[in-house]
Amino acid sequence: MRPVLFTLGDVGIPSFWVTALLGFVLAFLVVRSDLRRRGYGVDLAYDMILYAYVGGWVGARLFLIPTAWDIFTRDPIGFLLSGSGWVWYGGIIGGAIAMVVLARDRGLAFMELADVAAPALAIGLAMGRIGCQLAGDGDYGVPTSLPWGMSYPDGVVPTTERVHPAPLYEMTACFAIFAYLWRRRWQSPPAGDLFARYLILSGVTRFLIELVRRNPAWLVGLTTAQWISLAMMGIGFYLLRQRTVRRAVVPAA
């Protein structure tokens, strides 16, 4: 584990923030490339990343506050700027709301922006999970005897037990989702197709990873993240069905 990646003088640079920055750079490059292919200017790419960053950051932190109220009240600034404890589904929701605002301000179709954002979301989260792995911030799983189990003795949330390296599982899945969506975009799918598939694939991924995470059950034996995952899958399947039905409709002669 390497929670502090390097130092500048007396200032330690957290590995989480370095990988988060790299994630946003990669996401920007992905968004810029796809927007150019669709005939948009690079200024829209900057706006999308800015809106997504602000919306995702606010959502990820706000959704965490109710689960760590005591820590938040003791040191609200330190809590908000911490490199650990980000809520994945809060970031998704906050980023989606930000994209709705941007689409309305620019007079653009939300689904087209969502399709552009889908591969970027996947690769951005993959990089973020690398940061979680390096930081050992508690996103690891339950104890395991499997040969690839790991301990995090020097992590932000240390443990000497061998546990599931859940961040690595999610990182691998997110890179695979990115590769799939990036390739599919060349097939000219209908608007909303890529976003719908992202919702389904990322929902399935997180639902399964929660099976080895340490998060407590919330309702009917499922964690909060699993319920959010089910909602994402439901929305994704609904969007896919709507687009399949529309493409099947043949205009009357």
How would you describe this protein?
The chain is mainly α and 253 residues long. The chain has nine helices and four strands, in the order ββααααααββααα. The strands form two sheets. It has a two-stranded antiparallel ribbon. A hairpin with a 2-residue loop joins strand 1 and strand 2. Helix 1 crosses helix 2, helix 2 runs antiparallel to helix 5 and helix 6 packs antiparallel against helix 7.
In short:
The protein has 253 residues and is mainly alpha-helical. The protein has nine helices and four strands.
Largest sheet, described in full? Answer: 2 strands, antiparallel
**Hey, roughly how much beta strand do the residues contain?**
5-15%
**Class computed from helices, strands and strand pairing:** mainly alpha
Separation, N- and C-terminal Cα atoms:
66 Å
* Fraction of residues in helix: 55-70%
Rounded to the nearest angstrom, the radius of gyration is: 19 Å
Note poorly predicted spans. none
Entry keywords:
4 strands, mainly alpha, globular, two-stranded antiparallel ribbon, 7% strand
What does the secondary structure layout of this molecule look like, with pairings?
Layout: E1 4-8, E2 11-14, H1 15-37, H2 42-62, H3 69-74, H4 76-80, H5 88-106, H6 110-135, E3 150-152, E4 159-163, H7 166-184, H8 193-209, H9 224-248
Antiparallel strand pairs: 1-2, 3-4
Helix pairs in contact: 1-2, 1-6, 2-5, 6-7, 6-8, 7-8, 8-9
